[in-house]
Design brief:
It contains 11 helices and 10 strands. By secondary structure, the chain is of the alpha/beta class. The chain has a single domain, classed as Vaccinia Virus protein VP39 (Rossmann fold, 3-Layer(aba) Sandwich), CATH 3.40.50.
Length: 306
């Protein structure tokens, strides 16, 4: 069945925070943020939604993501924890993975340790020097302007992205235009920023994702088995700034004292999260800094003009 969708995006955003913005650009960006927040209040949260309870096994995280994971920002650590504990079950045995917006290509190594994939294809808008370091017979990289044209993914059956969809103007088209070499079911895992992440990252990408944006993103034929896992709350957002020696409170000092939460600067960010593991579990999707979105997609190799 033909299902090419060009120029489709999950949100109404007009500008990207990935380029320097003047006064007018910042005003438009903030208007998009206000509309995100307003839409989140009006949109129903999917019933297939769960709070992700991180394991935060320090030894396993360091083995897969290297010692630098100890002092990554809190939500990136939680994303790594989700990948470590859930990616293999999402993708199945020995998957063939496509990484949308692969950046330097480091996930080609992390995902190998977690999923033991057969092949890995990484795509990004510009080539990276580090790609040569990671390339092997089963690992390759290519330049692609995602969302603008069909992406030929060959034998791939697993689609991954980490903090990438928000940077793609036509994020919905990036999903709709995936073209395998034959009809097959694709397993997706996308780690995307929630609306509250603006407190941490400010002008970043085109959008953040709430119930409305996620519903629009996956409103495509052939989508099934949608699951939403959310993580990162006011504690991780405050820790984001505390680890940078900047105190930016999200809650009152009285509330913070009652919660018993503080950032110990003598410890790594990961160790601070371990101490407060139970308290950083989100109570709802609307408070979450990040979201892990998984689903299945029935895809076929058909192609046609716009």
């Amino acid at each position: 069945m033909r299902n090419l969708q060009y120029g489709k995006k999950s949100s109404f955003h007009w500008v990207s925070g990935d380029i320097p913005l003047g006064g007018g650009g910042k005003a438009l960006y903030k208007l998009g943020l206000h509309l995100e927040r307003f839409g989140s209040k009006l949109s129903a949260v999917s019933s297939d939604c769960e709070s992700y309870v991180p394991e935060l096994d320090v030894a396993r995280l360091v083995r897969v993501f290297g010692p630098e994971i100890r002092n990554r920002n809190p939500t990136r650590i939680l994303c790594a924890d989700f990948i470590l504990n859930r990616a293999a079950s999402v993708f199945g045995e020995t998957p063939d993975i496509v990484d949308l917006g692969c950046g330097e290509g480091g996930y080609s190594q992390n995902l190998k340790l977690v999923t033991d994939y057969g092949t890995y294809q990484g795509y990004d808008i510009e080539p990276r020097l580090a790609w040569k370091e990671y390339e092997t017979p089963s690992v390759r990289f290519a330049k692609a302007r995602l969302g603008y044209a069909p992406l030929q993914i060959g034998q791939a059956n697993a689609i991954f992205s980490q903090s990438a969809l928000e940077h793609i103007e036509y994020d919905k088209s990036a999903i709709a235009l995936l073209r395998p070499d034959r009809e097959r079911t694709l397993s997706h895992l996308h780690l995307i920023p929630g609306i509250p992440s603006y407190f941490e990252h400010r002008y970043h990408g085109y959008r953040r994702y709430g119930p409305r944006e996620i519903r629009n993103l996956i409103d495509l034929p052939g989508i099934s088995d949608v699951r939403i896992s959310h993580f990162g709350n006011w504690i991780t957002r405050e820790f984001f700034w505390e680890m940078r020696n900047r105190h930016k409170p999200q809650v009152s000092s009285i509330f913070r004292q009652k919660s018993g939460v503080f950032y110990d600067k003598s410890l790594s960010t990961l160790e601070n999260l371990v101490i407060h593991r139970e308290k950083i579990v989100t109570q709802s999707m609307r408070e979450a800094s990040f979201i892990a979105l998984t689903f299945k997609q029935a895809a076929c190799p058909e192609d046609a003009g716009p």
